[in-house]
Amino acid sequence: MSTTSMETSQPASSSQPPRLAVRTNWKLPDVVSRRANKGRRRRIRQQNGTYLDLLEKEMNSINKKVWAIGPLNSDTKGDKKKPNSCKHRCLEWLDKQSPKSVLYVSFGTTTAMADEQIKELAHGYVERVKEFGMVVRDWAPQVDILEHPSTGGFMSHCGWNSCLESITMGVPLLAWPMHSDQPRNAFMVTNVLKVGLAVTTWEQREQIVTSSTICKVVKMLMASRKGEEIRRKVEEIGGAARQAVKEGGVSCLELDSFITHITR
């Protein structure tokens, strides 16, 4: 897949975050509530600074503290390569590809698509890359795939773990949320952090995403000036996130503060 700069039109997006259903009888499970009251938050300040500032203000008003510790996925980017005997076959395939040329596609373990949508998805790739690449039907080492230098993008359902892993590894996203927290996560990725593009808007979730739309958004991420800007942004944020968990980083300092607090 070429990475030559070219201008394309902006794919569908929304300037407002998706609405969440309101439940008047909603209550946190006790274990979650206790953890919230203790102020333990697994977040990255570089990504959630505004939210954490607001949370700290509210928690401080009731004499509770907040510690921002994360990201919690392994900081392996740039580490020495694993022995070939330990490698998943998809990583061996990635070793043969050009840098940032592969689009990784995964929608998690609970996503179900209509047959018509699956066909459009497949046709969209054929139109853009002229080949399918590699299909992995069993478990795939997602973090290893995302940190591989050949991986240039991630089409995702935007589950939070997937978002966090992709951003931490400096890989831009194509956001295609399906349910639950995914629409809000996708909005953060595309509109707040600006480290990805929307495949379709949440308001159009009941409509079939055509192969031409898929082809267009893949081209924009992988082979356009806008895609290059997004890549630079996510690499910057990813670098800050990885730095946070190293010795002397903000996450380590927060963890030290937490340990000091509970052992005083």
Automatic annotation (TrEMBL):
| UniProt-listed Pfam families | UDPGT
Query: Residue ranges under compositional bias (Polar residues)?
Result: 1-17
Map out region (Disordered) in residue numbers: 1-20
Recorded hits in InterPro entries, A to Z, give: UDP_glucos_trans, UDP_glycos_trans_CS
A GO term (biological process) for this protein? glycoside biosynthetic process
GO terms (molecular function) for this protein are: UDP-glycosyltransferase activity
Q: Glycosyltransferase among the record's keywords?
A: yes
Q: Does the keyword Glycosyltransferase apply?
A: yes
Q: Which UniProt keywords apply?
A: Flavonoid biosynthesis, Glycosyltransferase, Transferase
Query: Do you know which PANTHER family this protein is assigned to?
Result: GLYCOSYLTRANSFERASE
Family the UniProt entry places it in: Belongs to the UDP-glycosyltransferase family.
| Designated name of the protein | Uncharacterized protein
Instruction: Give the organism, scientific name.
Output: Rhododendron simsii
